[in-house]
Amino acid sequence: MSQDSNLNPIAWNEKAIIGASGGLSLVILKLIEADFFLTSSLSEAEILARYLTYIAYLLLGIMVAIFFTDSEGKKEKVRKNAFISGLVAPSLLLALLSPPNLGEGVDPTTSIQQFGEKIQPSNFSPLGTESATDNDHSSKLKNLTPTFSRVRSTDAQVSKSTIVNGVKVLDIVPDDIEKATFAQLLLGAIGRNPNLKNYVFVVGKTTSQHNAVNIAVNINSFIKSLAVSRAIVIHPKHTKNYYISIGEINLKTDAKLIKRKIHGYASKILFGNKQVTETNRKIASSLLLGTVVFADDLLPSV
To answer: Which of 24, 53, 200, 265 has CA atoms 20 to 30 A from the CA of 7?
Structure first.
């Protein structure tokens, strides 16, 4: 190829294809990060929304490569610039258009469903009403094994756990949530997320411990045939909230695995062919609203 032919302008459609390949590279990275949605607990609508977002990445890459890449010059350099434009443009433009999230006045736990102060017999009642005695609850929980974990303490703050009607009630303090070291933060900055126990699958919250325990008892009865951690109650010290979770504070991958199992089981109950009682239908519907949250968000703000 002569030097003159190497300096010929590149057509806009060639730049578009190169820019699209750059955007496609970003899309592939995002799909790898999401395990290609093969084991995702997201709904079909959420997955579709993400694929539409990825298509938007491609379009952004194409437009930036066409309008912001010089057509003249060495073809190798022009092609390289078009590819880089297609790769960088989506993330750069989205960052510029997104307002900073200062988090002022925003409660990160607002997405967690709030249970009322009392459980009526028509709601969560496979074990009866709130007037049931402790012995009644214990006899119906004889096949349930509570899940225990190590409770850390310091001189200044002490965590404690108690068993109420067969349900573990865990009072947590900031020291119970594993924090990332500076080295781990550096790894996170390059995409290597540290394995920290700082996430939990939360089903709901209430301001009554008695109410929270009753809900956990009924959930445990509902999922007793499922190979998954039991429901417990998490109470951040110095707050009035009691959170009902499946399992304790754990790795993010483990918390998401619990979520997938619970959501899959609840969906099977709701949409399966078998007859479902109204009580089980309500419990399953509530479990589908459970979400994986950052455990630090449960603690009181300082």
So the answer is: 24
**Structure confidence at residue 245 (pLDDT):** 95
The single residue listed with the structure tokens 């609850």 is: 137
Residue whose pair of structure tokens reads 């009322």 in the numeric block? 116
Rounded to 5 degrees, φ, ψ at 177 are -105, 120
What local confidence, expressed as pLDDT, does residue 19 receive? 87
Residues of the chain with pLDDT under 70: 1-8, 39-43, 45-46, 93-108, 116-159, 184-193, 301-302
Whole-angstrom Cα distance, residue 55 to residue 48?
11
Q: What does the DSSP 8-state code read for residue 239?
A: S
- Alpha carbon 145 to chain centroid distance? 26
Strand 242-251 vs strand 167-172: parallel, antiparallel, or unpaired?
unpaired
Tens-digit pLDDT profile for residues 6-41? 666 778 888 889 888 888 888 888 888 777 877 665
Cα(77)–Cα(114) distance, rounded to whole angstroms?
58
Q: Are 262 and 251 in contact (CB under 8 A)?
A: no
- How many whole angstroms separate alpha carbon 250 and alpha carbon 235? 16
Residues 6+ apart with CB under 8 A from 80: none
CB burial of residue 181 (10 Å; 0-12, 13-18, 19+): exposed
For 177-208, write each residue's pLDDT tens digit: 888 777 766 666 555 667 788 899 999 999 99
* Cα–Cα distance measured from residue 254 to residue 234, given in angstroms and rounded to the nearest whole number: 17
Task: Give the start-end residues of each E strand in the chain.
Answer: 160-164, 167-172, 197-206, 231-236, 242-251, 291-294
Sole residue written with tokens 């084991």: 39
Instruction: Say if strands 291-294 and 167-172 run parallel, antiparallel, or are unpaired.
Output: unpaired
